[in-house]
Amino acid sequence: MALASCKAQWIARRAVQALSRPHPRPQPRAICFQRLSYPAARRFLPLLSPYGHSASGMCHLAQAVKRNEDDLLKGLVDKNVIEEVKHILEMAKRASSGNIVLHTDFLTPPVQKESMLLLEKLADIKAIAQGGYPQAERCRISIGHIDTLTSAPDIVEAVSITGNFSFDSCSHGDFLGAILGTGIAREKLGDILLQGERGVQILIVPELVDFITATLDKVGNVPVSCTRIPLLALEYEPPRTKSFRSVEASLRVDALASAGFKMSRSKLATLISNGDVRVNWTTVTKNGTTLKSGDIVSVSGQGRLKIGEIITTRKGKFAVELIRYL
Fold this sequence. Notes:
Blueprint: H1 2-20, H2 30-36, H3 38-44, H4 55-73, H5 79-98, E1 101-103, H6 109-119, E2 125-130, E3 140-145, E4 157-162, H7 172-180, E5 189-194, E6 199-204, H8 209-215, E7 218-219, E8 222-223, E9 225-229, E10 241-248, H9 253-260, H10 265-273, E11 277-279, E12 282-283, E13 296-299, E14 303-312, E15 318-325
Antiparallel strand pairs: 1-3, 2-3, 4-6, 4-9, 5-6, 7-8, 10-15, 11-12, 11-13, 13-14, 14-15
Helix pairs in contact: 5-6, 9-10
């Protein structure tokens, strides 16, 4: 009995000691612990992004690029110009990252000007604008890395459109309409150089030269033939202009354009509502659009007008120089 009592007391003591001793939690397998440890994360995450250790790092990078683009586009007002310039900046990114050369279509002067100014701010990008001859208005821009774009690519070609226009003269708009009527988009076409009774010379993207020479056979009622010509054969002169001054109460487009084109303001208002009036190659929809020196006003069927020097008179009116292209 004494032996049994001692044994029972010993078992009880061991049980109490076992219950009072802290039990360590089971440890995960060593390989799992190592993968989840902080040093391991530091080793692997940079392969995903050199700018951070989480998805938020990529988000911050995207925001930084967006802020940089927004900074470049500050000051631009025309929505159409902004969208085209954004597209050209995207082309610059692709050209730089892919070490390739990309080419725009023919651009209007405002888009070309703003794009070249912004592209010059990109350190590793080179841009070359060319329209086929020195005074070209509509130009294409070649964009590439500074180590890749080493010379001006051949991205503009010339075509001569000839016919007997002695008794049936055609205007710039007539030739443009005939060319667009073949299905060629306006952005694939550069300047149109009138050659009087002989016809015109046009600048065009190289890939459409064969198409237009095979397709265009008439302008108005005049049969024509199209021939590829070298750029050195282009015949161009500075545009003929006529300047005069007009005193107006405001610088609204309907006031200045009606004075420049010698038409009533009501007729010009109708042209504006029909979408036939453009300022700096962008269609205007409001009669009250304000003009400034250097603006170009185009009216369908009437030609172009440039706003020259503007002087405020003592009576608060505006003496405006109007330069009409003939």
